[in-house]
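Example for tutorial group B:
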């Protein structure tokens, strides 16, 4: 449990460095692009997992 607390503390420090520095807008732009990329990938794999598989000959 202490390990996860330290991991999230480090993540919070990195997020604070991005937020309090001048590059918050650039980071937000990158996050928007990555969000839509991963959203598309999520739906592609979701549809691929629902479709039945053809038997291998």
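The residue assignment follows.
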């Amino acid at each position: 449990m202490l390990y996860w607390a330290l991991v999230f503390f480090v993540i919070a420090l990195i997020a604070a460095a991005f937020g309090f520095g001048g590059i918050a807008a650039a980071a937000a732009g990158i996050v928007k692009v990555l969000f839509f990329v991963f959203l598309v990938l999520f739906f592609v794999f979701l549809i691929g997992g629902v479709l039945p598989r053809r038997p291998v000959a």
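The chain has a mean pLDDT of 81. Compare this with the pattern of hydrophobic and polar residues in the output above.
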